[in-house]
């Protein structure tokens, strides 16, 4: 789930403040201050959990909704990162020695603590990211589902498994799973709670310790999750949190980790993979996306339009699995587009810490500049803006209107590069072969969405799409929320998987233990090498006849 490949986009001219609110204008209300929702003392208590030196450099973290300072965040230096790994490594053996059931019990208690503290978490997530309250709750829902799943399923995932031995009855072979040791987890700013939970909780229940580097912008959400985990019974030293600028602290984390889980841009993901390969450690990477939604001619239009709104504008489009390209069958194109654009124009922007807004803010200035630059580039080169296309400083410093474009063509940055904002391009298509080819015409392969009443058509199209996740008659949540199934991307969208069995197995080393009885796998009992090879060859033929694996 990338936090955007933040290119050095030029500063676009500031859009004029729109006139007074009219019905359907998307006008929102501004939040006066974040302080009633995030007192300085609360932020200070979270900061106390960071691994930093006695005189750390400080970075000002600003609330996207208001521009106020959230916290002066201390930064961890390379020595602090090394110290964090030392503390985590010292705590890990005792944790790994505990029965899986005891480790899983921490996740069961954490599940309830997350729900008990929902209102605090929602406000913190809104203050740090700028997303709406409803979209912030998506993070809590996924985090609790992840805790519940691994609390119940980890024993089965981690149990020793009997395998067929070299010689039936004579060879007993068992696979065991051991923790990697200390896992480095690097999480982005767009989904700071959910992505931390999805990567860290399975690592912990597998018996590992964790050194976590959240993005500076949203570090407090990750620290709050750690605080709740400690309250649930996790040893404090087991989960260390370090801060710092990505290019500085990130490599330091990879330098000391036994495994790395990274979520971010494709460009940075390549660097993480190269550094991990140099140390011969494993890594999992969830990176960028240029996700497509396909609306067939028999789709339920009410559900498809509603799903498209969620697919494109949840968290202001700052979601790795957000839809940025939409393909609509020519027979329903005009009808669908009219309804979709009407609904987009009616979406309400807002910065209040309640459920009044439909779309929230972008999270940082760099992302606002990237979105603005891509839309302006497309407009200059001939794209038509059907809705949105403007900054909204009257609502908040980083707001951008939900934007719909047509006539987006090759040569426009928007056509191929991830936007990571509330922007979608619309395209017509004639037949299934054409649309599958178009949807696959990208170096990314993270998620896709199909809308049709024909189950067979949906299944056949899904299997032809080169994406790690496909949602049928849903925007993105069906696949992403299925925490018992693997999620991740193909191509430039990443490496490895999170969730399900793969989500915990990535944090383990497999050890095969084979016990031989009665006779060795070698000439014995007076057999000559020649007789032994004939006997073994006959045995291998018999095993094939008996269809023994």
Fold and architecture overview:
With 549 residues, the chain is of the alpha/beta class. The chain has helices at residues 40-47, 78-97, 100-116, 118-129, 133-158, 194-205, 219-231, 246-256, 266-278, 301-313, 333-346, 365-380, 413-416, 432-439, 455-464, 477-480, 500-505, 529-545; strands spanning 58-62, 69-74, 161-163, 171-179, 182-186, 209-213, 239-241, 259-263, 282-286, 291-295, 323-329, 384-387, 403-406, 423-429, 444-445, 447-451, 469-472, 490-491, 494-495, 508-516. The strands form 5 sheets. Strands 12-13-14-11-10-16-17 form a 7-stranded mixed beta sheet, with helices on both faces. Strands 7-6-5-8-9-19 form a 6-stranded mixed beta sheet, sandwiched between helices. Strands 3-4-20 form a 3-stranded antiparallel beta sheet, with no helix packed on it. Helix 10 (301-313) links the parallel strand 10 and strand 11 (323-329). The longest helix has 26 residues, at 133-158. Residues 2-24 have low confidence and may be disordered.
Uncertain spans: 2-24
Q: What is the helix fraction of residues, given as a range? A: 40-55%
Q: What distance separates the N and C termini?
A: 39 Å
Individual helix count: 18
Strand order of the largest sheet: 12-13-14-11-10-16-17
* Count of DSSP strands: 20
Largest sheet: 7 strands, mixed
General form = globular
Rg value: 26 Å
Class computed from helices, strands and strand pairing: alpha/beta
Mean pLDDT: 94
Strand content: 15-25%
């Amino acid at each position: 789930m990338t936090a955007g490949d933040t290119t050095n986009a030029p500063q676009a001219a500031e859009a004029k403040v729109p006139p007074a609110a009219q019905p359907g204008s998307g006008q929102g209300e501004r939040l006066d201050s974040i302080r009633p929702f995030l007192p300085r003392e609360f932020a200070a208590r979270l900061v106390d959990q960071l691994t930093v030196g006695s005189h750390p450099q400080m970075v000002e973290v600003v609330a996207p909704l208001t521009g106020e300072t959230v916290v002066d965040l201390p930064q961890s230096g390379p020595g602090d990162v090394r110290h964090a790994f030392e503390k985590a490594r010292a705590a890990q053996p005792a944790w790994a020695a505990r029965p899986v059931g005891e480790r899983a019990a921490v996740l069961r208690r954490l599940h309830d603590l997350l729900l008990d503290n929902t209102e605090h978490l929602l406000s913190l997530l809104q203050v740090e990211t700028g997303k709406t309250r409803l979209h912030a709750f998506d993070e809590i829902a996924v985090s609790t589902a992840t805790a519940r799943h691994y609390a119940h399923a980890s024993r089965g995932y981690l149990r020793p498994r009997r395998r067929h031995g070299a010689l039936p009855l004579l060879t007993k072979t068992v696979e065991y799973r051991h923790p990697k040791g200390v896992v480095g987890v690097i999480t982005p700013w767009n989904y700071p709670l959910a992505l931390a939970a999805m990567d860290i909780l399975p690592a912990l229940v597998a018996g590992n310790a964790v050194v976590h580097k959240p993005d500076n912008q949203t570090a407090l959400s990750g620290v709050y999750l750690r605080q709740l985990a400690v309250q649930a019974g996790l040893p404090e030293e087991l989960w260390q949190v370090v801060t710092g600028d990505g290019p500085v602290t990130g490599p330091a984390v990879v330098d000391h980790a036994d495994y790395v889980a990274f979520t971010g841009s494709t460009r940075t993901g390549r660097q993480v993979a190269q550094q991990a390969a140099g140390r011969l450690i494993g890594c999992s990477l969830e990176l960028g996306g240029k996700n497509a939604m396909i609306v067939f001619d028999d789709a339920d239009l009410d559900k498809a339009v509603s799903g498209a709104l969620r697919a494109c504008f949840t968290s202001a489009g700052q979601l790795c699995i957000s839809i940025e390209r939409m393909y609509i069958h020519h027979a329903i194109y005009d009808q669908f587009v009219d309804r979709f654009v009407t609904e987009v124009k009616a979406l309400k922007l807002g910065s209040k810490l309640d459920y009044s807004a439909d779309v929230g803010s972008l999270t940082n200035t760099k992302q606002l500049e990237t979105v603005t630059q891509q839309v302006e580039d497309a407009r200059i080169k001939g794209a038509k803006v059907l809705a949105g296309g403007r900054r909204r400083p009257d609502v908040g410093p980083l707001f951008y209107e939900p934007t719909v474009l047509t006539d987006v063509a090759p040569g426009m940055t928007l056509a191929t590069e991830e936007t990571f904002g509330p922007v979608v391009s619309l395209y017509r298509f004639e037949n299934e072969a054409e649309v599958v080819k178009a949807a696959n015409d990208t170096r990314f392969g993270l998620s896709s969405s199909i809308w049709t009443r024909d189950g067979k058509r949906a299944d056949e199209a899904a299997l032809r799409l080169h994406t790690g996740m496909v949602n049928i008659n849903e925007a993105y949540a069906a696949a992403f929320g299925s925490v018992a199934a693997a999620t991740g991307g193909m191509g430039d969208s990443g490496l490895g998987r999170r969730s399900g069995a793969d989500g915990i197995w990535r944090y383990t080393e497999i050890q095969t233990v084979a016990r031989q009885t009665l006779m060795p796998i070698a000439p014995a009992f007076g057999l000559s090498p020649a007789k032994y090879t004939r006997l073994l060859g006959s045995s291998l033929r018999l095993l094939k006849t008996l269809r023994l694996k």
